[in-house]
Write a structure and sequence with these properties.
Distance between the termini: 48 Å
Strand order of the largest sheet: 1-3-2
Structural class: mainly alpha
Strand content: 5-15%
Number of helices: 19
Helix content: 55-70%
Length: about 475
């Protein structure tokens, strides 16, 4: 890379949160506080708990002579605006939650690694490189004779090793080498959690870009739906989507996860593990849980986007957003057309009425007394409402698309034929959820089926018991891809 290009690249990166955090005058303090509360312990904290804990730490720092005049709320708000924290509002939560941004997590990981830097070239790191290259060469070799020869050599080596173990000549990895390899595994696993954060950020950015395009689109409802389904494919088929899907399948595979749990349990029982720091031993114990939590947060981003599909289709909120965008554009055009006619210093004969609120002193506030509004005869005990599993199931069916039932319907239809369109599925299994079932089948077909230029007519009954129909592109589900619908 030429010096000019490198300088321009690093100047651009210097404005990013990662570099700003490392170069900040209070960087050591900020990194230490964020590491202790959102990196080594919990991954997210409610706002009230976050403010309380940061406030206690600030009091301790002030007692030691440090200059931190602002409140914890002010500092947390600054870290949020600087890109060191991210704020989320989980479903059914009573308050917002804070968690580390990807940049802050990478900064903490980089600074922490400086305490125990890697040696110049450890045996385990070299072994990983050699094994990866050998595996790559073997898996890309198209010569059958060479591959068979390698397998026979491997079989002979395994046989010799088994005979040696039976004779009592078992080779065990020395404690020093085992300790080095364990630390290398911890470092790699810690990097994986950072990869999950970056993938989640990419998904959220794709989601935001898609919705912005939908809001700017001037097409009709059908074109909006086409763009929406194309957006789902865009997210799933992106580099981040394909990489995460493959990794998530591997992580949630019962065989792989069981083998990982047994391996961790066996390693934790070895004597050399006691030479690791308490932090590293705790990380090994929680490794599977941490990976599942980080992967689950990424998976939740995708699931949230899918669950919002039905609401987006049934509501007309995007029309209101589009109207507001148009009003803003018209206002900007009107302002630009007047900029040459009206001077900035000219007095306008126009009065703008601003809303205001009545301000009172806190001392005038009076606590609400419920007894003043109590009924004279007291409160009667009402009868408990009758509810059963069937009514609960109906409520759930009205709120979300039942993808599990739709997949089962497609499975049953493909048992007797090699391919089936959405109309073929609806002939055997009518749309129980009305338009929601149609949308769900189109979503499944867009992801697992084959799209054609042909069209077919599908019908369903609405909530008013009236039959409706629509013309959609013909999408075929194939029997050879039935396993993808599991």
């Amino acid at each position: 890379m030429k010096a000019e290009k490198a300088i321009a690249t690093y100047r651009r990166q210097r404005s990013q949160p990662l570099w700003r955090l490392l170069a900040s005058d209070n960087g050591p303090t900020v990194i230490g506080l964020l590491q202790s509360h959102l990196y080594e312990g919990e991954r997210s904290l409610p706002a009230s708990i976050m403010h309380e804990r940061i406030g206690r730490d600030l009091e301790m720092l002030r007692a030691q002579g440090e200059d931190f005049p602002q409140t914890a709320q002010v500092y947390v708000a600054n870290w949020l605006s600087e890109g060191f924290l991210e704020r989320r509002f989980p479903p059914n939560a009573s308050e917002e939650e804070y968690e580390l941004s990807t940049a802050a997590a990478e900064a903490i990981r980089f600074v922490s690694s400086m305490e125990q830097p890697h040696l110049a070239a450890t045996e385990s790191r070299l072994a990983l490189v050699i094994q990866a290259l050998v595996k790559l060469a073997e898996d890309t070799d198209t010569d059958q004779s060479r591959r068979i020869e390698r397998l026979l050599d491997e079989q002979e080596r395994i046989t010799k090793e088994i005979d040696a173990i039976k004779k009592g000549q078992m080779r065990v990895l020395p404690s020093a080498s085992a300790l080095e390899r364990a630390r290398e595994i911890i470092s790699l696993a810690d990097d994986l959690t950072g990869d999950f954060r970056r993938v989640r950020d990419q998904f959220e950015q794709l989601n935001r870009n898609l919705r912005e395009r939908l809001m700017d689109s001037e097409g009709n409802r059908g074109e909006v739906l086409d763009s929406l389904f194309a957006g789902i494919d865009l997210i799933s088929e992106s580099d981040a989507g394909r990489t995460f899907s493959a990794f998530w399948r591997l992580l949630t595979d019962p065989v792989q996860s069981t083998a990982l749990d047994h391996a961790i349990e066996s390693v934790m029982s070895r004597e050399f593990i006691n030479q690791l720091d308490t932090k590293d031993r705790r990380f090994l114990l929680r490794m599977t849980r941490s990976l599942l939590e980080q992967g689950g947060s990424v998976h939740e981003v995708l699931q949230t986007f899918a669950r919002s599909l039905k609401h987006f289709v049934q509501s007309r909120e995007y029309l209101e957003q589009r109207r507001l965008n148009q009003l803003l554009r018209d206002t900007q055009l009107a302002a630009l057309s007047l900029k040459d006619e009206v001077k900035a210093t000219e007095t306008l004969q126009y009065t703008l009425e601003l809303t205001s609120s009545r301000i009172r002193s806190l001392s005038q506030w009076v606590l609400y007394d419920p007894s003043l509004r109590a009924l004279p005869d007291g409160m009667n005990v009402g009868d408990a409402p009758s509810i059963d599993f069937e009514s609960i199931g109906n409520l759930v069916a009205q709120s979300e698309i039942d993808f599990r039932t739709l997949k089962g319907n497609v499975h049953d239809v493909l048992k007797t034929r090699s391919q089936a369109s959405i109309g073929d599925v609806l002939e055997q299994y009518p749309a129980d959820q009305g338009l929601g079932s149609i949308v769900g089948l189109v979503a499944l077909g867009s992801r697992y089926g084959i799209k054609t230029e042909l069209k077919e007519t599908v019908s369903w009954f609405g909530s008013d018991e009236k039959q409706r129909s629509a013309q959609i592109l013909k999408i075929f589900f194939l029997k050879e891809r039935i396993d993808e619908l599991a």
